[in-house]
Amino acid sequence: MRCRLGAWTRWHDRRPDVAALGAKVKVGARRSEHLARITEMGLVPFHLNDLEKEVRDIDVCINTVPHLIVTASVIAKMPPHTLIIDLASKPGGTDFRYAEKRGVKAILAPGLPGIVAPKTAGQIIANVLAQLLYADLQKREENHA
Q1: Which residue from 84, 49, 30, 90 is spatially nearest to 66, judged by alpha carbons?
Q2: Domain 2-110 CATH (choose: 3.40.190.80, 3.90.180.10, 3.40.50.720, 3.65.10.10)
Q3: CA 140 to CA 145: how far, in whole Å?
Q4: What does the alpha-carbon distance between residue 47 and residue 140 come to, in Å, rounded to a whole number?
Q5: DSSP secondary structure string, 85-116?
Q6: What mean pLDDT, rounded, does the chain reach?
Q7: In angstroms, rounded to a whole number, what is the distance separating the alpha carbons of residues 54 and 27?
Q8: Greatest Cα pair distance in the chain
Q9: Is 64:87 a contact under the CB 8 Å cutoff?
Q10: Which one of 7, 27, 68, 90 counts the least CB within 10 Å of its CB?
Q11: What pTM does this model have?
């Protein structure tokens, strides 16, 4: 089973590929449209408010949220064999001290996409910025209409 947390992505996403290999992929989100998109992708969505319940039987937890979300209380509910990979910007979103204390392997790998595939990561950032600017422009136009 896999658990992925974090920012919603609109570019090429490996989660469906992992699911196609037989993994049960659960994806946490807060916004209803993101939860709907996760379902549309054939993955299992959950609201991040339910994170403690959802981690009870996971093998791998991948976090991209750049603030503390994988807390001591969340880690306490994980099986001891769980691997946490935190891709969020420093300092990450995982309580690494508690993970170490509990014997749960937790790796902080901020910027890994940029290290592994810098050109693709740059294109992704450019696309996201363009989407954010366009969304902001639309909101401004709606407010002035």
Answers
A1: 90
A2: 3.40.50.720
A3: 9
A4: 29
A5: EE-SSTT-SB-HHHHHHHT-EEEE-TTHHHHH
A6: 79
A7: 10
A8: 57
A9: yes
A10: 90
A11: 0.69
State the Rg of the chain over Cα.
Answer: 16
- Residue 12: pLDDT over 50: no
Reference 129, options 119, 141, 121; nearest CA is 121
Q: Please state the domain extents for the chain.
A: 2-110, 114-145
Q: What pLDDT, in 10s, does the model give residues 93-122?
A: 999 999 999 999 998 888 766 666 666 655
Q: Quickly list DSSP for 129-142.
A: HHHHHHHHHHHHHH
Residue that has been written with the tokens 């039987």 in this structure? 57
